[in-house]
Amino acid sequence: MSLPASDESESFARFLHTTPLGQFCRHPEIAWALAQDRLATTITPFLHLPDIFRYEERLLRDWESERPEAAAQARATSAPIQASASGMTDEARRLRELLHRVAHRRVDAAAVGREVFIPCPPFFGDPHLSQPLHDGLTLKIGIVRMAHYWPKPETELRSRAWRAQPALIRAAESALFPLLPPPGENEDDEFSAAASLWLALAPLREFEAHKSLPLLPYTTIYPEGYVPRGYSIRIKPETMRTLGGSYLTLAAAGLSPYISDPFLAYCDSRRSILQMWIADLESLAKFKWSTPATSS
Fold this sequence. Notes:
By secondary structure, the protein is mainly α. 60% of the residues lie in helices and 9% in strands. The strands form three sheets. Strands 1-4 form a two-stranded antiparallel ribbon. It has a two-stranded antiparallel ribbon with strand order 2-3. It has a two-stranded antiparallel sheet with strand order 5-6. It is elongated and about 75 Å long. It starts with 7 loop residues before the first helix and ends with a helix.
């Protein structure tokens, strides 16, 4: 579904006040669903970033035992980060320090060892993605389950050369955790906000990783009355009959009648934002259905 590209504001206002689309959007269940869909788009980058830290606490302990020199360097260079991160929340500060040490471990493993990855749903089942950085380093991005280290004189020299470059370690951190903002005056505040949201969305990522349906299954329609396990109905069948449509109408409009329970709980925690968006229904409709020409 899309709305006319010409005279955007007038077109949207006219559609919302003089056509069945306006009645459709003004229904409380539809308006709330539109706001939930807008919220979903704002958290998509946080949902697609896998939990690369899942096994890293254990891996780091093993690394410290097997590679004490490299691990000591990672701890030493993380101290200034910890000291300068006074404006972060405690959880964000811990994550920032962990990211630094993980970057060191993975750079070291790329030089002297081998890592074993688990399948990663955000990567469509691939165990990892490869990202070239510089100075010959190609970093594997994914969730590591095991790591082995077999240093030789030439690979040890390579590891030391890579780990001695703060810019390369920073590039590895950004590759592993793209939510890391670029260095700057507001870096700590931006990282704290991003890290807090990413951590808060862990239940949603875990849900999607183990379900065949997404958080909002836009094109999946079940027989009336059936609700898949782990989901709730947000737009009732009788609502659509009242509006002169059906769940097929919703599918055509890109609206799901179902919503996953973890995402519903997250929406409830952001109720004030959704209510603010619903108060501007025209903007919600534009956000949902504007063509590329009108949304630029």
